[in-house]
User: What shape does this take?
Amino acid sequence: MQATLQVKGMSCQHCVNSVEKAVKEVGGSAQVDLKNGSVTVQFDESAVTLDTVKQAIEDQGYDVA
Ligand SMILES: [Cu+2]
Assistant: This one.
C-alpha cells in the first residue's frame, strides 16, 4: 500500500534521514518531500499497518496529521 502523510516538524536532511530510517525499521519505505512537509510511505499491509508506520514517524518527534 502507498499513502501520503502530512508530517509536521521536518526541517532538514537530518529529519529526512530520521523519518526514512524509522519507516525502514518497521518494514516499509518512505520518501520525504521537505518542501511540502509530506512523506509518501510504501509498505506491505500484511506485514505492517499504517498506524505502525505513523507511530514510527511520531516516535522520531514529528507530528503526523
Ligand atoms: Cu532536521
The radius of gyration is 10 Å. DSSP finds two helices and four strands in the chain. The chain has a mean pLDDT of 98. Residues 27 and 47 are 8 Å apart (CA to CA).
